[in-house]
Amino acid sequence: MTTAAHRALTAVLAVLSLALTATLLLNRHTSRNAPPPEVLTLTDTLIIRDTVHIALPTPQTTDTVGTVTIPVPPDRHTGTIATDTLRITDTIYIRLPIEQRYYTGPHYEAWISGHRPRLDSLRIRTETLRLTTATTVTRTATTARQPKPERWGIGIHLGYGMTIAPQPQFRPYIGIGISYNLITF
């Protein structure tokens, strides 16, 4: 074998071993970059309200806080104001008391003001229970993947191969090297 052929064969083997090393390193680098886990939090809130209905509550206190003057005009048809025995044809002003009534109970307080104020009914909606649940779901992958078989390896080799020097020949050999596994068992 000539020196030029020997150099060419050495260069080809060097390029092949560099390509194999680069492929091995790239394979190791990409297998470590697994996608980050997906975290999804679901929150559900349940609010239960209790309605209390109080019909015709009675006032606790009644205070007079002022007066109001109300004009009472004469009747449009007759032109007079009907009283017991007296007929008045002019407007009368009546002073009426303004009251403030205070209503209270275990679930409410109410103040009502005016002339003869009255609280007809009271409806109270109280929040008795607020239940909040949070569920966290974590997914590492959307589909279950089988583990990828390892194809590359470094090890002791026993086999039949080609020698380079002094003449290319096929002979049995024992060596250490990088291998690509075609079949795994």
Describe it.
Helices cover 16% and strands 52% of the residues. By secondary structure, it is an alpha+beta fold. It has 2 domains: 3-35 and 141-180, no CATH class; 53-134, no CATH class. The protein has a 3-stranded antiparallel beta sheet with strand order 2-5-6, with no helix packed on it. It has a two-stranded antiparallel ribbon with strand order 1-7. A two-stranded antiparallel ribbon has the order 3-4. A hairpin with a 4-residue loop joins strand 5 (92-104) and strand 6 (109-114). The protein is rod-shaped.
Short description:
This protein has 185 residues and is α+β, with helices and mostly antiparallel strands.
Q: Roughly what is the average pLDDT, rounded to an integer?
A: 76
Q: Strands of the biggest beta sheet: in what spatial order?
A: 2-5-6
In terms of DSSP E residues, the strand content is over 45%
Task: Give the low-pLDDT segments.
Answer: none
Cα-atom radius of gyration = 50 Å
Q: How many beta-strand elements?
A: 9
* Number of DSSP helical runs: 1
